[in-house]
């Protein structure tokens, strides 16, 4: 079976199997838009149809893999139970003014159906055998006109799907009080912008080597399970281990210095300021499995705050991947483990996962674009209602349209681009197909196509197969 792309957007077809060894053909297409500013208080989206925003076939990082935030995650996830909303960007102070703290905000909503105002009833003649009087006709026409005006003048109401606010702070450090026990956070420095990446959020790694220029295995290595590249997290034994290494191995010029000066997070959940380092006790016994790591991390006093992709090996995401052990190798490989939760493939923080992306959604941003793009820091964008779909061409000659579902919304405010990753799933046991075509409609109103009842039932069954399967695994 071939894929014929009838759109100017990048698309491909690939295969994946579920834990029950059911094969699925997956069609993926990425549609991207350029964010444009029309005037001082008006913004819009323009389709990018030159192929300059390709599908992402492998994870990309801002720096070294595993040592930096994910820039873009692969578009080839087999199935996401929810739609990821990701924002890659920078926080900007209003009008580029030097400040010590600001709030940034992301909001996604969709228009609700307008209120149904009853249409005026056609008047009845005084006598069934008589026509309406001129006065009755005029009054009825006037009432119909008023009804049309009332429907047209209805204010569109929006229902919020996602709303998230973060605090962006200037640089500061945690350090011990000079005279009294305890810790203090130094005053915040001023700033005008900061990339929103996990390096500036709560988390961290504590590593100690025997010698200053050592490249061998570290003597001590503890990692924050929820964000190993962040700051403000300290394992309980870190300070004492630094002291031991200094006393036993390091010369006077190689001492570990300033290890009690801890960089404070610069990205936090709004108004949830961390006043001191978070000291956490990790078990000293052997390796922990992913579920144990997730249980331990639930008790951390803080959680990383951000808008970007969560790392695949971070908790609690990694715990959803399932069990890969000897039993899996012997009985299930190469298929996914029976205990996989497909929520693992959702890369956004849980408070940025939505059930469904509406093609006519509204996106609002605060302090997330350059000052010259919005001097007040506020941007409001309405999506145009475009709808991607596929047509399945059967060997019998029948052609069946099938909607694509948006599983990732990537908002890149550094480049002012929004990319929507759309997917459609076709079970391998579907009747023999000759080929599949990707299609795209820029019609914002009305139904794109209507499925006959029997085709609608089959469509629902195919689309929800993995979702039902995943829910059964989650709830046993």
UniProtKB/TrEMBL annotation:
Regions of compositional bias (Basic and acidic residues) in chain numbering: 455-470
Species of provenance: Acinetobacter shaoyimingii
Chain spans, region Disordered: 453-476
Protein name, entry field: DUF2169 domain-containing protein
Signal peptide: none
DUF2169 domain: residues covered: 22-110, 161-422
Alphabetized Pfam families for the sequence: DUF2169
């Amino acid at each position: 079976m071939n894929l014929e792309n009838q759109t100017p957007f990048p698309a491909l077809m690939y295969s994946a199997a579920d834990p029950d060894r059911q094969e699925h053909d997956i069609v993926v297409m990425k549609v991207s838009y350029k964010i444009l500013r029309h005037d001082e208080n008006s913004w819009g989206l323009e389709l990018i149809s030159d192929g300059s925003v390709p599908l992402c076939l492998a994870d990309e990082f801002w720096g070294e893999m595993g040592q930096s935030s994910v820039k873009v995650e692969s578009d080839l996830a087999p199935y996401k139970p929810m739609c990821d909303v990701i924002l890659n960007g920078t926080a900007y102070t209003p009008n580029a003014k030097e400040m010590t703290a600001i709030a940034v905000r992301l909001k996604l909503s969709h228009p609700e159906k307008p209120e149904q105002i009853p249409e005026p009833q056609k008047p009845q003649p005084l006598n069934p055998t008589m026509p309406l009087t001129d006065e009755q006709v005029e009054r009825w026409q006037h009432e119909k006109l008023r009804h049309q005006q009332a429907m047209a003048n209805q204010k569109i109401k929006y229902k919020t799907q996602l709303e998230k606010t973060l605090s962006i702070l200037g640089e500061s450090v945690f350090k011990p009080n000079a005279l009294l026990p305890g810790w203090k956070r130094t005053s915040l420095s001023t700033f005008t912008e900061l990339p929103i990446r996990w390096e500036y959020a709560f988390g961290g790694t504590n590593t100690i080597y025997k010698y200053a220029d050592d490249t061998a295995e570290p003597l001590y290595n503890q990692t924050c399970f929820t964000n190993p590249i962040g700051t403000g997290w300290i394992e309980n034994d870190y300070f004492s281990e630094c002291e031991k290494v200094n006393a036993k191995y390091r010369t006077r010029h190689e001492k570990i210095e300033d290890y009690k000066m801890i960089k404070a997070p610069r990205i936090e959940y709004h108004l949830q300021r961390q006043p001191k380092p978070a000291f956490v006790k990790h078990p000293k016994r052997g390796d922990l499995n992913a579920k144990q790591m997730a249980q331990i991390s639930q008790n951390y006093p803080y959680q990383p705050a951000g808008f970007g992709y969560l790392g695949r090996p971070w908790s609690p995401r990694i715990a959803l991947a399932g069990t890969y052990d000897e039993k899996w190798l012997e009985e299930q490989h190469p298929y996914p483990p029976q205990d996989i939760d497909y929520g693992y493939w959702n890369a956004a923080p849980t408070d940025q996962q939505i059930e469904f992306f509406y093609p006519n959604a509204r996106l609002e941003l605060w302090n997330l674009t350059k000052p010259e793009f919005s001097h007040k820091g506020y941007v409001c964008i309405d999506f145009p209602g475009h709808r991607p779909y596929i047509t399945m061409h059967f060997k019998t000659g029948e052609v069946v349209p099938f909607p694509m579902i948006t599983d990732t919304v990537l908002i890149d405010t550094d480049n002012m681009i929004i990319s929507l990753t759309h997917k459609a799933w076709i079970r391998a046991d579907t009747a023999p197909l000759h080929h599949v075509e990707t299609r795209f409609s820029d019609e914002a109103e009305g139904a794109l196509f209507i499925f006959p009842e029997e085709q609608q039932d089959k469509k629902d069954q195919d689309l929800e197969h993995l979702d039902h399967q995943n829910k059964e695994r989650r709830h046993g």
